[in-house]
Amino acid sequence: MAANVSLAAPPPFDAERVRRDFPILDTRVNGHALVYLDSAASSQRPLAVLRAVEDYETHSHANVHRGVHALSQAATAAYEGARERVRRFINARSTREIIFVRGTTEAINLVAQAWARPRLRGGDEILISALEHHANIVPWQMVCEQTGCTLKVAPINRRGELRLEEFHTLLGPRTRLVAVAHVSNALGTVLPVKGIIEAAHAHGALVLIDGAQAVPHSRLDVRALGADFYAFSGHKLYGPTGIGVLYGREELLAAMPPWQGGGDMILTVSFEKTTYNELPWKFEAGTPNMSGAVGLAAAMDYLEGLGVEAIAAHEQRLLQLATAELARLPQIEIIGTAAHKASVLSFTMKGVHPHDLGTILDAEGVAVRTGHHCAMPVMTFFGLPATARASFGCYNTERDVARLVQALGKAREVFA
Amino acid sequence: MDLKELYRDVILDHNRHPRNFGRIEAADSRADGHNPLCGDRLSVFVVLDGERVADIRFEGRGCAISTASASLMTEAVKGKDRTAIRELFDKVHALLTRPETAADGALGKLAALSGVREFPVRVKCASLCWHTLNAALEHGAATISTE
Questions:
Q1: Which of A38, A244, A270, A317 could form a disulfide with A103 if both were Cys (CB 3.0 to 4.6 A apart)?
Q2: Contact between chains at B3 and A371 (C-beta distance less than 8 A)
Q3: Mutation for A interface: B13, B63, B65, most A CBs within 10 A
Q4: What's the confidence (pLDDT) of residue B145?
Q5: Do A356 and B64 touch (CB under 8 A)?
Q6: A292, A50 in Cβ contact below 8 A?
């Protein structure tokens, strides 16, 4: 029995070994070993991703879906293979539900223009939360201008949590779409998206989830979640920039018109009548980002190799450690103290503007994001122009947290 | 990269105790500046006596570099005419952006900003107040942005 128990126990997460997969982490910054605490803005890429992209470019590149020649077939196989990899990673029913886009922003704009714009009109409502990234605000404001529908915003509390009672009050028969973040990029709050989706569906509204900050830190199962649309980016998932995914339920995507016209999204073109391609290519006009898709698929392989749950548990330990360490510093105020958080620690230091803090930490080799994090309404809610934000990835260690604390001490010295 | 070059005592002092801070309700001209990168906002209020800046105040929220630069600027330009201010702005701009520029004697305390040029992303913090003052003098009320 004892042997069985030890077999069942997960192996300890070895972040030091993981670090060796990320050559950029050896960079020296201003005379110090780099401490990279900005994965929420963009994560670094492991060798497996760099090599997959290089291998594709070196051996398999030509245009997809066109030529009968060998390289075109190889490129098509690599690109469509990546789509199948994404389908498995998020447990979608079909690759027809996986649209490759540039990133989360483009995915949301696609739904705004191809689903919302043709359907919504005056009197209809789109419900978002006060935690949203600008990418999940501005596309809906544009739809409101285009159609006359109304944008409603569910408020948050001082801990940075969605006020569920108000959310449910705002959800009504006029609500056609709920669009919320799975995890807040500015504060790290994990939103109760399963409950949100069930409540929205009970009112006949569809739901889009902005999963840019969630997919790197939790196992995503779009079928179990029940989301109608789910958007995320490759570069926050240890993959390349310029590639992202829109998941959409097939019957919804099938009923939507294309949003961009061009090559690859058509079956036949004549000056009298053009017929559109099948899903998912109907939404992928022009030559797509093949190497990006290949890199994203490699990143998913890499993540599953480490274990998505194991990474999440490791990051959660670091978040708790960093939260406890910063809470002990009298000048630090942690912004966003939700009960459920993922990987993000936003804070301010009394008497030191976040921008100065960012410069001082950088001089110490510690990379954090400072600014409004493309979530200006969140900053306005807390009455702040900006915060400093440390965010954790699979390659961060307790040592990185110690270096952050040390660098904050330096900031206190400079501004003593 | 030397933090002490950036955060000199003069800068830290003017950040902690900004001079000429506040509004002038009866200002002849006012302009608002915004640096979207860090969220800094400041407003400059000017009382003119012909071509001369008779009084100047600023208010707003910003980083140490932006606050200290605005404070130093108000001290430096008060009593000067437009032409002298424009010449001073050119000297400050050269100081912030050209590595070989020796601090001009005419700069006085503004020379404390020379450390900023080692930190290119921070140059906009130091120049925001000058662009805002320029807008106030050239165009009257306006919002200018560093982007």
A1: A244
A2: no
A3: B63
A4: 63
A5: yes
A6: no
Integer angstrom CA distances of residue B12 from A312, B19, B29, B42: 41, 12, 29, 18
A144 plus A82 within the same structural domain: yes
CATH number of the CATH domain containing A252? 3.40.640.10
What distance in Å separates the CA atoms of residue A113 and residue A54, rounded to the nearest whole number? 35
Q: A347 and A287, same structural domain?
A: no
CA dist A259 and A79 (Å) reads 21
CA distance A50 to A64: 21
pLDDT of residue A359: 96
Find out whether A117 and A89 touch, Cβ atoms under 8 Å: no
CA-closest candidate to residue B80, choices B112, B102, B56, B105: B56
Q: Mean of the per-residue pLDDT values for chain B?
A: 90
Q: Rounded CA gap, A357 and A60, in Å?
A: 46
Residue B102 has pLDDT above 80, yes or no: no
Contact A130, A155 (CB under 8 A): yes
User: What's the number of domains chain A is made of?
Assistant: 2
| pTM for the structure as a whole | 0.93
Same-domain status, A114 and A213:
yes
Angle at A198 between CA A194 and CA A203, to 5 degrees: 150
Q: Tell me: do A256 and A327 sit in the same domain.
A: no
Contacts of B95 (CB under 8 A, 6+ apart): B101, B103, B104, B107, B110, B111, B113, B114, B117
Please give the Cα distance from A384 to B128 (Å, whole number).
Answer: 19
- Has residue B147 got a pLDDT over 90? no
Residue whose C-alpha is closest to residue A191's, from A163, A219, A229: A163
Task: Select from A240, A242, A238 the least CA-distant residue to A305.
Answer: A238
ipTM of the complex: 0.90
DSSP-derived 3-state class of residue A270 = coil
Query: How many CA atoms does the CB half-sphere of A41 hold within 13 Å?
Result: 15
**Do B64 and A415 count as a contact with CB atoms less than 8 A apart?**
yes
Residue type at position B132: T
- Concerning whether A394 is annotated as a catalytic residue, the answer is no
Residues spanned by the domain of A17: 13-44+308-414
For the residues B13-20, what does the mean pLDDT come to? 97
Structure tokens at A353: 């503007």
Measured between alpha carbons, how far is A291 from A56 in angstroms, rounded to an integer?
6
CA distance A368 to A359: 9
**Which two tokens mark A132?**
């949203």
Last residue of a domain, one of A305, A333, A358: A305
Q: Which fold, B3-140?
A: Sufe protein. Chain: A (3.90.1010)
A7 belongs to a structural domain: no
Q: Give me the catalytic one of A144, A149, A374, A394.
A: A374
